[in-house]
Amino acid sequence: MSLSDESTDPTPTIRQDAQPGFEDTEPASSMQEFYKLYQELLLITLVLTGVVFISVWIFYSLNIALNYLLGACTGVVYLRMLAKDVERLGREKNQLSKTRLALLVAIILLASRWNQLQILPIFLGFLTYKATLIIYVVRLAFVSD
User: Fold this and answer.
1) CA 16 to chain centre
2) Which of 45, 79, 96, 145 might form a disulfide with 132, Cβ 3.0–4.6 angstroms?
3) Alpha-carbon torsion 22, 23, 25, 26, what sign?
């Protein structure tokens, strides 16, 4: 069998196989799901931040609670920056930027230089958005829609 015996017909692409009128509905619904997920994660993060802030204030001190709140606010800003980065992915960019980590580095450096700030509560506050992700995944695993 030679190469000239093989068919040279073009193979159809997904865009060619799509039904007319349905080309752009999947990306739009995917973005709607993304925005819904972002809003849900943001809400869970804010509620969790409030609960932990009040608990730390009751069991420790206002200073430690405010340090935690500073870290949690930094985590919310990080989550927002991540969402904006993911939103631009595919349209404007091919990969996620790494500048978001500069936010964490800056807040940790500020805490290490300023005597009233404590690194551990700030860092744990920053990780609140990670706890939100764990809560979301566990809820998704045990609750079916």
Assistant:
1) 34
2) 45
3) positive
How many percent of the chain have pLDDT more than 90?
Answer: 42
Q: What is the SS3 string spanning 85-132?
A: HHHHECCCECCCCCCHHHHHHHHHHHHHHCCCCCHHHHHHHHCHHHHH
Cα angle at 22 between 19 and 24, to 5 degrees?
Answer: 140
Q: Are 122 and 108 in contact (CB under 8 A)?
A: yes
The DSSP secondary-structure symbol of 23 reads T
Q: Which residue in 73, 131, 108 sits closest to 65, CA to CA?
A: 73
Q: What is the pTM of this model?
A: 0.73
Q: Which two tokens stand for residue 16?
A: 């060619």
Give the span between the Cα atoms of 135 and 44, in whole angstroms: 8
- Predicted local confidence at residue 69, as pLDDT: 95
